[in-house]
Structure formats: C-alpha cells, structure tokens
Design a protein that fits this description.
With 306 residues, this protein is an alpha+beta fold. The chain has six helices and 16 strands. The chain folds into two domains: 3-66, RNA-binding S4 domain (Structural Genomics Hypothetical 15.5 Kd Protein In mrcA-pckA Intergenic Region, Chain A, Roll), CATH 3.10.290.10; 83-304, Pseudouridine synthase (2-Layer Sandwich). The strands form three sheets. Strands 5, 6, 7, 8, 9, 10, 13, 14, 15 and 16 form a ten-stranded mixed sheet that branches.
C-alpha cells in the first residue's frame, strides 16, 4: 500500500519552496524524488495538489503520498559474498577479482549487485522510488577489494556526500612495472574520456575531472615496485591512468600497459585494501581491511624469488 505521510511546517520553513521544505523535513527522500511526487500530484496542501515553487507558511500541513517502491528489474542471484562487516545501514564486501559490480547491457547476470539483492532481500535502499542496492562507488572488474554498499536511503545519501567531499579513506595495494625513482610521490592530472578510444580514460588538458593519487613504495624488486596508493578523488581507472602516465603501468593492465603480461594473472594487480568512513548513523569513524587475495600474494612471492 502507498505510504501517506504528514508534514507540519514550522517557522523554520516559513517562506521556503515546498520542495526544499519537504527535503529538509524528510531527509530520507531526495529533493529530486520529492519533485517527482509533486509533479505527479501526490503532494497536497489544503486538499489541493501543489507546484514545487509554492512557498509554504508556518502552520500549514502537507500530505505526501509515497508510492510502493518499484523493483529495479535486476535478478537476485545467490552468491558467496565475502562480507567484512554488516549492520542495518551498510554492508562492506571484499569483491573478488573478475567480478563485475553492476549489470550492464550484455552482462545482466552474475554481478555483485545480483548477489547483494539475494543477500539483502527487502533490506535495500529505495532511492528515488526504485528498489536497489546502494552502490555509491565502484571498483573495476579486475580490481579486488573493499566496497561499501548502503542498505537504506539515509545511509546512501550520507556516504555519497562523504565521497563528494573526498573524506572517505581509500588505500590500495598494487604492483607496477619498473622502479619508481622516489619512495613517495603525488600524481595530479584531470581524467576524462580518451577522444580516440571511448572505452579508455586519459589525462586531459581541458575538461575532465580533477584527480589526485599519492603513492608510497612498500617493496622494490628487479624491474617492479610494490606500492600503496591513497586517493583524494575516485575517478574511473584513476590509479591505472595516473601510473601509466608516469611510465609505470600496473602489472597485468593490458589496457594502459603492455599487451602481454609476464605473469599469469587476469587484469591489473590492484587491490582496494582499506576503506574508512564516518558511519551514517553513529557518527563514528570505521575502517575495514580486505586482506590481499591469493593471486596477489602469489605474485609477490614470485617477485621475491626472482
């Protein structure tokens, strides 16, 4: 059944647009979704539907009809998820290498989202009226490691805001080709679509999005370097693009590095090891570590034996 909610406006909302006032009073709903409800005539004041631009007065009462959440059209599939942490708001998973995060044309099944839908059941966010697992950030198919999934709208918006403010801790481990000249360094460069290959990203002089990657050398081998990467931003393929731009692509990255890999691994040797954030409900800082996967520890062992 549709959910009918009542909001009584106070002096605090006096004179505000009704869409803004409702967003303030109902933080679990996005302003975009509230506007959709208004456009559909589902927000009523004094028995009359209102427009989003209407100004509210203290003492007025609004009735908001929130329709049942729609299914996202994605199939739930049982999957053996590696769970690092779970509560009523967030789910932290250790995504394995080779697993795609979100369904895409031609790849609708067997993704992390399919598995999360099966695991969470009805305990999912309903952002903008659509039932979906709260995927607020992604890691590449062939990158392993820690990923945050939000289980309700409030958590989704809170984590999304932390990502926007670049306040979430994200530390990766990776092996690059060649020996970096310094033990510590920072790479800055806007990242955008490669104009010659739309499937690839590149550093661009004009446009794109700002990106900052810090690296720290953990161990050196003949012809290779084991590093930790800290991100200030989270752009698509950021570490891969930045490291390739200074002549040190990730081992196994046949997109931004050599077309052949000297080791038997599928895709880049990159692991999202640490994720840290302010919990959306408690306000406490939490940090989780995804242990290095077997393919990664095997690679390090081979490099140490060279």
């Amino acid at each position: 059944m549709p959910d009918v909610r009542q909001v009584n406006f106070t002096d605090e909302q006096e004179g505000m647009r009704i869409d803004s006032a409702l967003a303030l009073c109902m933080p679990e709903l996005s302003r975009t979704y509230i506007r959709e409800l208004i456009d559909e005539g589902l927000v009523v004041v004094g028995k009359k539907p209102v427009k989003a631009s209407r100004r509210v007065a203290s003492g007025e009462c609004a009735l908001i009809t929130v329709p049942d959440v729609k299914e996202a059209g994605i199939e739930a599939q049982e999957m053996d998820l590696s769970i690092l942490y779970e509560d009523e708001d967030v789910l932290i998973v250790d995504k394995p290498k080779g697993l795609t995060v979100h369904p895409a044309p031609g790849h609708e099944n067997g993704t992390l989202v399919n598995g999360v839908l099966a695991h969470c059941g009805e305990n999912l966010s309903g952002i903008n009226g659509v039932l979906r697992p709260g995927i607020v950030h992604r890691i590449d198919k062939d990158t392993s490691g820690a990923l945050i999934i939000c289980k309700n709208d409030a958590a989704h918006r809170n984590i999304a805001e932390q990502l926007k403010e670049h306040s979430i801790t994200r530390r990766y481990r990776g092996v690059v080709i060649g020996n970096l000249p310094k033990d510590d360094g920072t790479i800055e460069g806007n990242i955008g679509r490669n104009p010659y290959d739309r499937k690839k990203m590149t550093i661009v002089k004009d446009g794109g999005k700002s990106a900052v990657t810090h690296y720290h050398v953990l161990e050196r081998f003949p012809g290779y370097t084991y590093c930790e990467f800290s991100l200030e931003t989270g752009r698509t393929h950021q570490i891969r693009v930045h490291m390739a731009s200074i002549g040190h692509p990730l081992v196994g990255d046949t997109v931004y590095g050599p077309s052949r890999c000297a080791f038997r691994i599928e895709g880049q040797a990159l692991h999202a090891m640490v994720i840290g954030f302010i919990h959306p409900r408690t306000g406490e800082y939490m940090s989780f570590t995804a242990p290095l996967p077997e393919y990664f520890t095997d690679l390090l062992q081979k490099l140490r034996m060279r």
